[in-house]
Design brief:
InterPro entries: SQR/QFR_C/D, SuccDH_FuR_B_TM-su. The protein is mostly helical. The chain contains 4 helices and no strands.
């Protein structure tokens, strides 16, 4: 039977348990988000493409007045807002994973992730601002 003092130093029990760093189970939730948002995006994007490109005359009827009439409805505002947010966060999470896989230095990862966060935040804020403040009465 092996005794405690026979164990090599590298296999010694830690004196204090390690503290978990970051958000617990973040990668698990990010993985689940990618799957569920991907399914939702299929329906949102295909529905958007069908309505805009095929239904009732297709692409030839799309102009400012058509978009103004469409965004006058809360249903289409919510549809486009969900499409914007899900697509941006889904894409940013994918890019975050790619940066984590291919960037070698921690400083490179930090700056690339910071740039990604800034670009994603800017696009979400600007897109949400346009969707919320759009005045359909100017058409």
């Amino acid at each position: 039977m092996e005794k405690e003092y026979d164990r090599p130093a590298s296999l010694d029990h830690p004196r204090a348990p390690r503290r978990p760093r970051g958000i617990p189970y973040f990668e698990k939730y990010a993985w689940l988000f990618m799957r569920f948002s991907g399914v939702a995006l299929v329906f949102l994007a295909l529905g958007h493409l069908f309505i805009m490109l095929i239904w009732d005359g297709g692409v030839y009827r799309i102009d400012f007045n058509y978009v103004a009439q469409r965004w006058a409805s809360p249903f289409w505002q919510i549809w486009d807002m969900a499409l914007l947010w899900l697509a941006m966060i889904h894409g940013a999470n994918g890019m975050r994973t790619i940066i984590g896989d291919y960037a070698r230095k921690n400083t490179t990862k930090f700056y690339l992730n910071s740039l990604l966060l800034l670009a994603t935040g800017f696009t979400l804020v600007l897109g949400s601002y346009v969707l919320v403040t759009f005045d359909a009465s100017i058409a």
